[in-house]
Amino acid sequence: MNMSTKTKIIATALLFIIFSSTFTSMGQTSIRHNALKSNDYGVVYSLPITQLDFEFEFSKTTYTRGEYYQYAKQYLSIDNAILEDRTVYKLEDIKVVNKGIPNKNESHLIKFKSNSVEPYVYLTKDGLICAINETPNISETVKAARIQEAAAPSVNAQSLLTEEILLAGSRSKQAELIAKQIFALRLSRTDILTGEAENMPPDGEAYKLVMNQINMQEKALVELFSGSVKTEYDAKTVSIIPKYENIDREVLMRFSEKLGLVNADDLSGEPIYLSLINKNPQPEVVLTDREMRQLQKKFSEGLVYNIPSKAQLTLTYRNEVFSNKEVDVVQYGTQDVLTSRMFDSRRQPIKVIFYPELGAIKQIIQ
């Protein structure tokens, strides 16, 4: 058995994808666990493996054809009227969050001597190690929801049509009369702006109300010819747990202009490629039986912790790089041990602070 295989000590290599809502909270609450006689002066803790959360942000634009689209050019000189109903999705951004989740194969016991100075361990609610003999400062992080712009007030165009328009003998005649109604609204707005209207609004608030109504009515009627466009924003999170090996341009997901975000095996979308390359690969070392027994003894008696490796993460879609960043990946790294003798002091206990999401040591205070 080689050194890199032993020091990783992770029995399974997982790779899975999870869809989740964008609007979730993610945070860690640490809990103190005292090493007491009742628990044989030992505390069980877990080490994490790296999960990468990819948040795909996309827009959905709905184009709706106007009822009188064929008369847009004739009566309103509109050259770009929407000719058919359609929906278009666009990939706006991809955000990446490095997250540590408990590895069920990485539970360890840290034991203290009975005469140590009140030893204690802080763990997250999931059992990940946070600190020894020190209170960790873990702030709760809440993922903010995307703020949607408030939809502008709208008017039902059908409610604005006069009796003359509704009783017109043909659609062409209806379109002509609606166009005249639009021009009448524009003329009223111009008269108010120039102060030539017969009944001017008495004050600023009334002026604003009247102008808003004119604008909304005009927009609703014009859209009977030009059509309407509505854009909404949404997001989905996809999570993966990398294996030990590098990921070289694998299809993470696909994106379709007609359907939005789809699975990697759905050929209706274009591929979003993921590369995750270990920047510090560990050389394999073959151990003798004696060296292996020594290593096993070392790992069984001390405080096991992770030493993550740096990896280069790249996401590309349509030859556009959405993300190119360095991330810490536990699976690409190794492990080591702090000897339990470090915590046997009867006077001033040694304090150790960890990165809970990595299982790596942040600081040792003596």
- The number of helical runs is 6
What are the secondary-structure elements, in order, as H or E? HEEEEHEEEEHHHEEEEHEEEE
Q: What gyration radius follows from the Cα positions, in whole Å?
A: 32 Å
Q: List low-confidence stretches.
A: 1-27
What would you call the quaternary organization? single chain
SS-based class: alpha+beta
Quote the beta fraction: 35-45%
Strand order of the largest sheet: 3-6-7-15-16
- Spatial gap, N to C terminus: 36 Å
Estimate the helix proportion, in percent.
10-25%
The total count of strands amounts to: 16
Taking all residues together, what is the mean pLDDT?
85
Shape: elongated
Q: How would you characterize the largest beta sheet?
A: 5 strands, antiparallel
Describe the structure in your own words.
The protein is an alpha+beta fold. 20% of the residues lie in helices and 41% in strands. A 5-stranded antiparallel β-sheet has the order 3-6-7-15-16, with no helix packed on it. It has a 5-stranded antiparallel β-sheet with strand order 11-10-12-13-14. It has a 4-stranded antiparallel β-sheet with strand order 1-9-4-5. Helix 4 (171-194) packs antiparallel against helix 5. The radius of gyration is 32 Å and the shape is elongated. Mean pLDDT is 85; it is low at 1-27.
Task: Summarize this entry quickly.
With 366 residues, the chain is of the alpha+beta class. Helices cover 20% and strands 41% of the residues.
